[in-house]
Design brief:
Number of strands: 10
Number of domains: 2
Order of helices and strands: EHHEHEHEEEHEHEHEEHHHHH
Radius of gyration: 19 Å
Helix content: 25-40%
Strand order of the largest sheet: 2-1-3-10-4
CATH architecture of the largest domain: 3-Layer(aba) Sandwich
Number of helices: 12
Length: about 280
Amino acid sequence: MRTIKVGGVPEHFNLPWHFCIDDGTFQKNGLDLSWRDFPDGTGAMCKALRNKEIEAAVILTEGIIKDIHYGNEAVIVQEYIASPLIWGIHVAADSNFQSLEDLQHQKVAISRYGSGSHLMAYVNARNLGWDTAKLEFEVVGNIEGAIEALQSGNAGYFMWEHFTTKPLVDRGIFRRIADCPTPWSCFVIAVHKEFFQKEQAAILTMLKTLNGVTKKFKNIPKIEVALANKYDQKVEDIEQWLKLTTWSQKQISVQEIQKVQEQLLELDLISGMKDNYYFLPQ
């Protein structure tokens, strides 16, 4: 029995992992897989991978590419979600902000530096023609910290996945000004390089097991109800999210890696392009 410690955000994207853990599918295939939630996102997972607190992570594509560029000894072993992530741009519900233009000179709440909320703030600013060098950030840790920062005025806006934050919008805590989709596939599975070299067979078994579930995930009867109940969502919101979301069972393409690097380089978030460094040859 091979032990693998995996980390990911406590969001609806990752329910297939929990299915495989809870019904013993991983164990039947000789894997003792444990899951650790990272509510504060990609930056925290990058740190945990670096420190070998986890062996694998389901992580935002742009976040892990940037962190590997700066020394994280990890390798991308598979694309996980092939569709874009829809980032909602949120303000405090009772704030005076009404448009994206109102936010141009406001401080951005981010979970931590290197997180998706940090990197996507640059992407959004560039899309709007803002000077990215003038962006200012307030590190808040997680969604609870973002609520406090926006309500206190310590930050003006916060970017987080549209459907994860939808309950906060419905409850009148956040107000969503707009959405900003990632210009690339949003989640990959990354593994610490040393662990992968030692346990390649176990990792490939893990991927094969998971892919068997994700291939048929959308066709599971009442899956929208299960997702809504587990993640405090409305069924109609989950139905919309499922239409927008595509699970992948293949490696991320060279073109996709290059696309992410090009945008990170354009935003001065990495120092150069690298080839064949953080993905396995197909």
